[in-house]
Amino acid sequence: MASMESLSSILSFTAVKFPSPKLSPMASTAPRFPSFSVASMTPAQRIATTSKRSAKPSKTVSVTPPSPTSSTTDSSSATSLPPKKVLVPIGFGTEEMEAVIIVDVLRRAGADVTVASVEPQLEIEASGGIKLVADTSIKTCSNQIFDLVALPGGMPGSVRLRDCEILQSITSKQAEEKRLYGAICAAPAVTLLPWGLLRRKQTTCHPAFMDKLPTFWAVKSNIQVSRELTTSRGPGTSFEFALCLVEQLFGESVAREVGELLMVSTAANESRKEEFNTVEWSLGHNPRVLIPIADGSEEIEVVTIADILRRGKVDVVVASVERSLKIKASQGTRIIADKLIGEATESVFDLIILPGGIAGAVQLNKSRILKKLLKEQKLAGRMYGAVCSSSQVLHGQGLLKDKKVTAHSSIISTVTSQVVNGAKVVIDGKLITSRGLATVTEFALAVVSKLFGHARARSVAEGLVYEYPRS
Fold it and tell me: Do 4-16+54-261 and 271-464 show the same overall fold?
């Protein structure tokens, strides 16, 4: 059962520490890193690996506990139950950060998540330009029973969801039978409200749509749980939203464990970023950024970086190093790149950013074209960066020599001795690195700040509903 105290404790933990691998960082096969998922753990293992810690209730979370249902269960009984089934519908204009983070987090917790398109085709273009491929059509879901239906927001994505009669029927039945359902960003006001599914329920949504909600029931909180309904505010609160849903489905200990794996943290001693050897990144033209991706890349990182940079008015190109434009990311999300990496050689990029993912980093490292581009980037004095495990690729090309960096704790000791502890993002001259996963929002905003200034980054953060310093 969700509570203010238990949800707050999830968000207060520091990242879990993984043992460093003993393999060569540039091995041709995937290093045996720990899995970033608790899905394979038994409930007893999940509880055993999670220590009890206390935390003050978060002031940004307002919770009315849901009534006990078959969908809300303690993890101690999970072994006798089938996997929790979750439906995440998407359409043209769905907010990609919200959709991908919800799917990613729930899958890491062990949920059987179905991404269903409300469009005639499975491929959709999200609000920020990322192209996603659904698992199935919403038509195939009409007779299924789900433990949770979670609606991402975005415009016009929320309208596309609202106008889907099959989805309306599924969600209405979900509410009638007292099973869990949720919505984020514009979806509470644009989708659920016209369906009559917000009656007598305290609700929150994106600030731009708060005036659409019934005044008496509108609540300005990052997370609002009102019986079976959970609502949230925007891309910047997606991790809180998804972890709250995990807690209701699987229990507090599983939600806490997933939060640790994702490095969701509000630790007071953790800085947003540290910068060394400061140089200007501002340009006299619209910045062009290349994000190479591969099978096994971390979808949270790919989508968050691309979405935030595009919100900051950066020209972003997502390029596949595979033979196909379509890649399957680490948690099963299928993404369609803008072009193949070979086509990217026709352009000059001001910044190249490598997303993480263990298998993805291995694939990136196999690309001769990408390695050539990285060497040229360094020689030309242009910017480059990496998040999570992809710092290994830069290390293999000698691009981290004498640089201060951060990376995922499982690989940091294999790539450099100049580790900056306690920072989500580290900038050293024209190199920027991050620990990855949930810290990638700070990474992307730091890039926007370096390219355009703090005011632009803060403006983007406000649109995300993400807390960001004024100066």
Answer: yes
Is 206 an active-site residue?
A: yes
Chain-centre distance for alpha carbon 302: 9
- Phi/psi of residue 272, each to 5°? -65, -45
Q: Which two tokens stand for residue 388?
A: 């999570």
Q: Is 395 a catalytic residue?
A: no
- In words, the CATH class of domain 4-16+54-261 is alpha beta
DSSP string, 368-433: HHHHHHHHHHHHTT-EEEEEGGGHHHHHHTTTTTT--B---TTTHHHH-S-B-TTEEEEEETTEEE
d(CA 229, CA 166): 19
Catalytic residue among 164, 185, 205, 244: 185
Whether the model pTM is above 0.90: no
**Eight-class DSSP state of 120:** S
Active-site annotation holder among 205, 206, 244, 388: 206
Question: 261: helix, coil or strand?
Answer: helix
What is the rounded CA–CA span in Å between residue 178 and residue 227?
9
Confidence bin at 80 (pLDDT 50/70/90): low
User: Of 116-130, 260-274, 442-456, where does mean pLDDT reach its minimum?
Assistant: 260-274
Type of residue numbered 372: K
